[in-house]
């Protein structure tokens, strides 16, 4: 059987007496997008730094595309990373920046320029190639950072909070890029994020850390199914139809209806079981000729699962903000 | 090479380097004009003027070289650009040596700027060739030593401000004794102090040749301290680069 | 000042010195002092800043070898200019090994003319043997007469092109770099 593209075994990092990461063990294959979740201080960034050889492990080992961690320079040739707080030189242009990194990875000057130009075009930065990075928006810088992470055509790409500070359009763009990296380049992507919706959108597996330890490692579906989280949705209808809507939905078995947080024209429907439960709710409202003005699944299964596993209230707030909840 | 090349581009094409050279040329122009318009200046004083120009060139060049290198690692840390460099297959030793090379371009540039001034001051007293050679040799040795020291300080400092402050203090401590009126205290203690201070000893050597007319070999032992500085700074910088170039200062990778 | 007092001291010593000097008790040969110093060139001219070579030959006309000697070069101004010997040469003093009977020793000094005016450059021999050191008398010979002409080595007009051009050039360079950055 072929070796996994990314493999870690009992990877541990201690900072004095403090545990950064403890006995981290997981495998990831080519083309997989692994969501790396955890509260602040869980060890996500430490994990990424260990696997990209920026930090040396206290014990344990890992391999990238078969290259063991005992050969860090070679590992660095196989990985790309976008750090969370990546800075950029103010006076360099995007083209100069990527060319420089291409040269650091061994390309000659001409090849480096060609590669840099191609990456800039791929990430929609061709028109800004000759401009100083100081003139780039945050979204452009994140795209530039991801382009830099791909300069060496890596086998594994680590993205630490790539959508942080971006508007919704920018976030979607980054997520498209993440999918593309995994699908087209067949790289393993490790996506560290607080945005659980992102993980649900693009990740095939999720690794949840808490205080340096792995508390869950499996697929998204397995994580949410294991917790058995209920589903709920907020449905907005015309104010004069709210009574009809409550009556129609309340008649369905296995559903509870409640007011939706001080909104007189919306109701919250909670159902257990599969998403078919929500289909039945919508069908019932249509049968009752109640116009549906808005329908939003409230939170995600993953959010609920994550909260129940970690008790991280911060992530819950982020999830709410992401979907525009009051 | 790639590291040194990019560091040089950042230093010179950002505008900082050319601005420094412009300011330096203003200083030398003012000094040269004052010397040239002084009707009373005699032969010996003109040789001293050449020596002083040489010392100014070395002092300014070495100062800025030190400050550039003091920003080398701690500055990258604070700007968030260090981690990107650590993700490349380039060794940390190559990183620091590339930064060292780029910092040294500041010294060589100030030397080049000083050449026409030394020429115009020294041609009448036949010391141009000597002065230029002395300036190049002494300045280069001091620049290499202090740039390496600056990078060491930069790697180990908790912040960029601390790095620059410590480096500046080191430079002041080395230069101050050379500016004492009447020189160092006479006697064995002053003599030892003068020879131990790499900057003081290094600047003593051209003075002995240009002003006092000494032979090239007569004061060679004054070059020991600058040489020792180079060795004491370069060796730990290259051997301990893995420990010095860290995301967190003072941490072990 | 220093050169005048030195000259006066020397004159006083020579006036008191016996003619026979620190050879053995055996008398010098006929015809004068046992040690004779000949300095060359007898006369020369230079321009300020020039380096000149003073050569001296010390001949022992006595029947016995001399003690070890010290040869000291001195520069005396004839026009009242203050002379600091250290500015002219860093090594005015040379050790001379004992000179055999009838033999000669050749010495030379490279000096730089750092003052203008008229000077006598001469050599003084001092005894430096076990019994003769500090006992005198001194021996000297005819000086080398040196005339040093002045030269204006630095003038405002000559330096002006550099003084103006360098800041202009470097200022233009700094501005060009700044504009290039702004344009991009």
Q: In terms of per-residue confidence, which ranges of chain A show pLDDT below 50 for 5 or more consecutive residues?
A: 319-326
Unreliable runs of chain B: none
Q: Number of DSSP strands of chain A?
A: 14
Query: Number of helical segments of chain A?
Result: 12
Helix content of chain A: 25-40%
Structural class of chain B: mainly alpha
Radius of gyration of chain B: 19 Å
Distance between the termini of chain B: 25 Å
| Separate helix tally of chain B | 12
Quick one: overall form of chain B?
globular
Strand order of the largest sheet of chain A: 6-7-8-3-9-10
Q: Which chains have the largest interface?
A: B-C, 38 and 34 residues
Coarse shape of chain A: globular
Radius of gyration of chain A: 23 Å
Order of helices and strands of chain A: EEEHEEHEHHHEHEHEEHEHEEHEHH
- Strand percentage of chain A, roughly? 25-35%
- The helix/strand order of chain B is HHHHHHHHHHHH
* Count of the separate structural domains of chain B: 1
Helical content of chain B stands at over 70%
Oligomer: heterotrimer
Furnish the topology, listing elements before pairings:
The complex is a heterotrimer of chains A (326), B (253) and C (184).
Chain A: E1 6-15, E2 18-28, E3 33-37, H1 44-51, E4 59-64, E5 67-68, H2 72-78, E6 79-82, H3 94-104, H4 109-122, H5 138-149, E7 156-160, H6 168-184, E8 188-192, H7 196-202, E9 205-210, E10 213-219, H8 220-227, E11 231-236, H9 242-250, E12 255-260, E13 263-271, H10 276-287, E14 294-298, H11 301-310, H12 313-322
Parallel strand pairs in A: 3-8, 3-9, 6-7, 7-8
Antiparallel strand pairs in A: 1-2, 1-4, 4-5, 9-10, 11-13, 11-14, 12-13
Helix pairs in contact in A: 3-4, 8-11
Chain B: H1 2-13, H2 16-37, H3 43-70, H4 74-79, H5 82-86, H6 92-122, H7 128-156, H8 160-175, H9 188-196, H10 198-210, H11 224-239, H12 241-244
Chain C: H1 2-16, E1 35-40, E2 43-47, E3 51-60, E4 69-77, H2 85-88, E5 93-96, E6 104-112, E7 117-127, E8 139-140, E9 144-149, H3 156-183
Parallel strand pairs in C: 2-9
Antiparallel strand pairs in C: 1-3, 3-6, 4-5, 4-7, 7-8, 7-9
